[in-house]
Amino acid sequence: MTKPHDHGFSTRAIHVGQEPEPTTGAVVVPIFQTSTFAQPAVGEHLGYEYARTGNPTRTALEQCLASLEGTDAAVCFASGLAAEDAVFRLLSPGDHVVMADDVYGGTWRQIDQVHTRWGIEVTAVDLSDLDAVRAAMGPRTRLLWAETPSNPLLKILDLASLADLAHEHGARLVADNTFATPYLQQPTAAGADVVVHSTTKYLGGHSDVVGGAVCTDADTAQQLAFLQNAVGAVPGPFDAWLTLRGVKTLGVRMDRHCDNAAAVARWLADHPQVTRVHYPGLPDHPGHALAATQMRAFGGMCSFQVAGGVDAAKRVAEHTELFFLAESLGGVESLIEHPGIMTHASVAGTALEVPDDLLRLSVGIEAVDDLIADLERALGTKRE
User: Fold this and answer.
1) Cis peptide, bond prior to residue 152, ω within 30 of zero
2) Domain count across the chain
3) Do residue 93 and residue 238 come from a single domain?
4) For residue 346, what pLDDT band results from cuts at 50, 70 and 90?
5) pTM for the structure as a whole
6) DSSP 79-137
7) φ/ψ bin of 120: left (φ > 0), alpha (ψ from -120 to 50), beta (otherwise)
8) pLDDT for residue 43
9) Residue 315 sits in which domain range?
10) 212 close to 104: Cβ distance less than 8 angstroms
């Protein structure tokens, strides 16, 4: 008899860690809404003792995510930034991080304004330039931190080459796989050591839960589980249940996200008010060929720049109807945002500053003709 881990992606998304509940036969993992667990004897328990330390609903999610990412284990947290914080806490004062110069603003804010206070050093580098990466690596470099596709410029990074560089210098490659999800790419297959996620995004998929996860080897997961318990930034059981429910449909949702984003990107590329489109599925994208070999498809995120600068970009963002003006991404509904003012405001004035005429789209799973018509109306909006 085959085991769930031997099956295809979408089968594992539905079955790994989610066997029928033994007492009642319920086919959906229960929400174990409890803070503590009765123990049969002093110093003995049935696998769970206190809900910060562990919860069966969270365990089911962790087992499922590890299977999807192809890692030994996964450790879940209350948010994506809590997950990243735990990874940074594996470092010691004096350790150095080489980080992509196009990462989520919250990631840069955390390491630059929080962890550097405790002696961690960070250097921002264009990770698509392997010579620049090599030059930035030093004897105290412990982590090489990559996002691909990146946020918000959709750069594509060569994970295999970056893994080789990291390992040559005794460092570990950390890959933020939030944009791609394990459905589109598995960084550990290319040599990455640690994969981080904001499960708030595509994994949850319905804009109704916040969470994060780290997928990695068993030893590192054990260290992270210690931090998970010691620091306490854990997801509640209902959060884990919502995320697990979202993961079940990840494959079919991502197929639609990718199809819609590709159609929107092609339409934007031909629009006279659009000066540049950032989408790896377009043949003229500098990372197109690499993405075609590294990813199953090109993703549901797209960003573009508009003629007229920041004022024009703000007008477009404020005049869409189906694309809600909101931060976050990866839900079934389409979102639009201005990274320079919204999600990436914390990197203004730094090497990570993004163009002020840039808009980022999280392309949902609505009828794509309706989404294009919505953008067409917004791009045609005149100054009032």
Assistant:
1) yes
2) 2
3) yes
4) low
5) 0.94
6) SHHHHHHHHHTT--TT-EEEEESS--HHHHHHHHHTGGGGT-EEEEE-TT-HHHHHHH-
7) beta
8) 85
9) 250-379
10) no
Cis peptide before 235 (omega within 30 of 0): no
Strand partners, 147: 176
The token pair that represents 102 in the structure block: 């196009």
Q: How far are the Cα atoms of 163, 285, 298, 321 from residue 155, in angstroms, in the given order?
A: 17, 9, 11, 28
User: Does the residue 11 lie in any domain?
Assistant: no
For Cα atoms 155, 331, 68, give the angle at the middle one, nearest 5 degrees.
Answer: 70
Enumerate the active-site residues.
52, 104, 176, 201
User: Which string of b and e fits 202-236 if b means at least 16 CB within 10 Å?
Assistant: bbbbebebbbbbbbbeeebbeebbebbeeeebbbb
Residues 208 and 267 in one domain: no
- Judge whether residue 384 has pLDDT over 50: no
Helices (H), the chain: 9-15, 56-69, 80-88, 105-113, 130-136, 159-168, 181-184, 218-231, 237-248, 250-269, 288-294, 309-318, 368-379
